[in-house]
Specification:
Radius of gyration: 25 Å
Helix content: under 10%
Strand content: over 45%
Distance between the termini: 65 Å
Oligomer: single chain
Low-confidence stretches: 1-28
Number of strands: 41
Largest sheet: 5 strands, mixed
Structural class: mainly beta
Number of helices: 0
Length: about 475
């Protein structure tokens, strides 16, 4: 089959590689285990199924498994590196984090997705439509697959109805798989009628309304990350993905938002057509300070403030490199009307371009970032948690960092935070008789108008847009067994 041409991306082509198999020792103890992949990387609420895990060190010790979401339970499987997963009927749909841990420590977290559609695993061979003579076309389904080798293409038959829009969405990059994936939609003759590559991250999405009912084909393929001169298709045992096919109900027309707003306000809207901008008018008073945020899962946001003449006073098109959302903090220089503009960086628009805009008076805000995802401590010893504290505004009280949810025998004195923030160390101490344990902990910043929880960045490299989960407030703590004298 001819390799499809690569599409132009709004981000540099590539994929963040999850550093799960290479974990530096935290102490002189044996290295913690690694976790390279989980298959399938999710499942349907109310079902029980088996997962396979791959990673260094998982065969040497019977690993435990932890999940950040309630309603998810695990039992050891019949074979090594397998678990039986049960998703309760009341489990919350969406992404969560999974860790495997042994006496040597924890793997970095891996993203797992709890879904609502029926789930099926790919059946090989499925490189081209002619391989699928016995495969049943499906709709409203999630397929779990692996692009197992270089040049691999996975093909799925789907059933579409005339005039009924289908959304075809792939999670691969956003799960942490080493892939820069793409999608193709073929008609019954095998002719491409739609394609998708990067959205606001590297994962593709297609929305299509067929002119005729019948069987169509979706193809999944992937390119290299980091990008290379070689544009051939790539694959490996860790190129794991979830492909969802969901028929969409007709979109309701958005309710018009008032042009004139007052603060504080949180409102929702839709950029319903290409090049559309939503404009909100606000009477500003000199000396006021505002915090604005613009959130969307569906487009790369731009948030702008113009004066009454149309002159741009300030704007933001990214909070940071890991997200497509926008945020601004702005101090009003003079009285008068200003306009808050919501836009798509790439001038898109559709019934799916929904967003949430918040305009609030500012208070002191704190961002607290942890240096890593996991810590290890020996009985009778101590270990430091490094914190990067960024303070905006002026706190009204003294700030302290405090460790919460520590296991028995582990203590940490509250750490006073300077008014300007900075790089700090919070020291954990283990009593000589502290027992071995494995548990998530939390680092809280207290004394602000609202407590702040320190987070770490899910350990990926070279991000190209957000993952399903990019930040986590639950670092892992391993208390080792006391060394024998």
């Amino acid at each position: 089959m001819t390799t499809p041409a690569r599409s132009t991306s709004r981000y540099p082509s590539g994929l963040i590689t999850l550093a799960l198999a290479i974990v530096l020792p935290l102490t002189a103890h044996a290295a913690p285990p690694g976790l390279e992949s989980i298959f399938p990387a999710g499942g349907k609420i109310g079902t029980t199924f088996e997962i396979n895990v791959a990673g260094a060190g998982l065969e040497k010790d019977s690993p435990g498994i932890w999940c950040s979401a309630p309603g998810v339970t695990f039992q050891p499987g019949a074979k090594p590196k397998t678990f039986t997963v049960t998703l309760a009927a009341d489990a919350k749909p969406g992404p969560c984090l999974i860790r495997l841990h042994t006496s040597a420590g924890s793997t970095p977290p891996r993203i797992f997705h709890i879904g609502t559609l029926d789930e099926f695993a790919e059946l090989e061979p499925n490189d081209v439509p002619s391989d699928l003579k016995k495969a049943e076309p499906r709709a409203n389904t999630t397929f779990n697959g692996t692009l197992a080798k270089a040049g691999d293409i996975d093909t799925y038959p789907i059933r579409l109805q005339k005039g009924k829009t289908v959304q075809i969405m792939l999670h691969g990059y956003s799960l942490g798989s080493p892939m820069d994936p793409a999608l193709r939609l073929l008609d019954s003759r095998g002719i491409e009628i739609a394609s998708g590559h990067d959205t606001h991250n590297l994962d593709p999405r297609i929305e299509h309304t067929p002119a005729q009912s019948g069987t169509y084909f979706v193809q999944v393929l992937a390119f290299a990350h980091p990008p290379a001169a070689d544009v051939s298709l790539k694959g490996s045992a860790n190129h794991i993905y979830r492909l969802s096919l969901a028929e969409k109900a007709p979109a309701e027309p958005p309710k018009p938002e008032p042009a004139q707003i007052t603060t504080p306000v949180t409102l929702r809207g839709i950029l319903s057509k290409p090049k559309e901008e939503d404009i909100f008018s606000l009477q500003a008073k000199k000396g006021e300070e505002w915090a604005l945020s613009l959130l969307s899962e569906h487009f790369d946001t731009v948030l702008r403030i113009d004066d009454s003449t149309g002159k741009t006073l300030t704007q933001s098109d990214d909070i940071d490199k890991d997200t497509s959302n926008s945020a601004l903090r702005w101090k009003v220089a003079k009285d008068g009307e200003v306009k808050i503009i919501v836009a798509d960086r790439f001038h898109g628009g559709s019934p799916a371009h929904s967003y949430e805009l918040s305009v609030q008076p500012t208070t002191a805000s704190i961002t607290a970032t942890l240096d890593t995802h996991a810590y290890l401590i020996e009985p009778g010893k101590s270990t430091d948690i490094k914190l990067a504290i960024k303070i905006t505004g002026t706190p009204t009280t003294k700030l302290t960092a405090q460790a919460q949810q520590l296991p028995p025998g582990i203590t940490a004195a509250p750490l006073e935070i300077p008014a300007k923030g900075g790089e700090l160390k919070l020291t954990l101490k283990a009593a000589p008789d502290a027992l071995p344990s494995q548990t998530p902990i939390r680092i809280e910043i207290l004394g602000t108008p609202q407590p702040t929880t320190a987070t770490y960045t899910i350990p990926f490299t070279e991000p190209r847009g957000p993952l399903l989960i990019s930040q986590d407030p639950q670092p892992w703590l391993t208390v080792t067994a006391a060394k024998k004298k």
